[in-house]
Amino acid sequence: MSASKAFPGKARGGFPFGMRKKQGGEVSSRKDAQRNYSGMKRLPVGAAALGILLTLSACASQVMKSYIGAPISSVMLDYGPPDNVYNLRPGERAYQWRKQKTQVMPGQSSGEIRETRHGRRFETTETPGYVEHTECFYTFYTRSSGSDWYVTSFRQPSLECE
Known about the structure:
Structural class: alpha+beta
Oligomer: single chain
Order of helices and strands: HEEHHHHEEEEEE
Number of strands: 8
Radius of gyration: 29 Å
Strand order of the largest sheet: 3-4-7-8
Number of domains: 1
């Protein structure tokens, strides 16, 4: 008769569900696994943020693309007056908006109880917080037509500004 038939609450290998065999023949509980999970290394916050940025890539560009062919006054109505206006060649201008963002990333702390030959020890892992400053520029290129300026193209924002 197999262990799983003799003891209905046991999984293959003869250990109850939520239990597993550690190295050296000790049996580990689900609680041990949960306690060890808190001490696992996590991806740095910056790597997670980069993944999100790549996922949301081209968001600002899509919005900017929607203004091509429209008068620059449409952009001004939506985002206010530009921070800079540059005269390029005769009949061409660049309108630029600047956005600054400050983000505070909190630190993290986790701990775990470890068994050593000298007894139990509590070990902590700390990740410090930081402040991130981002400055973004959104530039539209325009051409004069009559008394108005019309958007002809735009400058691709940097990756962190998408």
